[in-house]
Every structure is written in structure tokens, then in C-alpha cells.
Amino acid sequence: MRTGHATDAQVSSGSHLQTTTQRSTLFSQERDLLSTYEDTRTRFYEKYRHEAEEYNREFIKKYDEDMNTTLIFVGFLHVPQAWTC
């Protein structure tokens, strides 16, 4: 065995280590990218939920007031009929 020269086992071990390091780096980059993607989605859906809740509150308030007005109006139309019976 000559000193200064790598054996086949050492070369194989070195390339395996390099491959493992590359995979680890890629995994780390993918994890960071996924985290950024999830943060973006989370912010979008939080904003969407907030806007939807606000819209629903306003919608219900408006139609609740309209329904109350309609019921009062209908009630007034039926009162004279009840007196004539």
C-alpha cells in the first residue's frame, strides 16, 4: 500500500460522505423553501379569514335589520285584518 494515495474504500467513503452532505444541504434548502411557502399560505388564509368574518358580520347585520323592518311592516298589515274579524 502506498502512502499518499487513496484506496478504493477511502474514495468510496469520501464520495458517500459528499453525497450525504449534498443531500443534507438540499434537504435544508427544501425545508426552508417549504417553510417560506407555508408562511405565505398561512398569512394569506389568515387575511382571507379576517376579511370573510368582517364581510359576514356586516352581511348579517344588514339583513337582520332588513328582516326586522319587514316583520314589523308585515305585522302592521295584519293588525287591521285581526280587528275586522
Overview of this structure, please?
The chain is mainly alpha-helical and 85 residues long. The chain has one domain. Helices cover 91% and strands 0% of the residues. The chain contains one helix and no strands. It has one helix spanning 8-84. The chain is rod-shaped and about 105 Å long. The model has no long low-confidence stretch (mean pLDDT 78).
Key features of this structure:
mainly alpha; rod-shaped; 85 residues; single chain; 1 helix; 91% helix
Structural class: mainly alpha
The residue ranges in which pLDDT falls below 50 over 5 or more consecutive positions are: none
Beta strand %: under 5%
Q: Tally the helices.
A: 1
* N-to-C series of helices and strands: H
Domains (count): 1
Mind summarizing the main beta sheet?
Answer: none
How far is the first residue's CA from the last residue's CA?
Answer: 120 Å
**Number of separate strands:** 0
| Broad shape | rod-shaped
What's the mean pLDDT score? 78
Cα-atom radius of gyration: 36 Å
In helices, the fraction of residues equals: over 70%
Helix/strand layout:
Blueprint: H1 8-84
Short description:
The protein has 85 residues and is an all-alpha fold. The chain contains one helix and no strands. The model has no long low-confidence stretch (mean pLDDT 78).
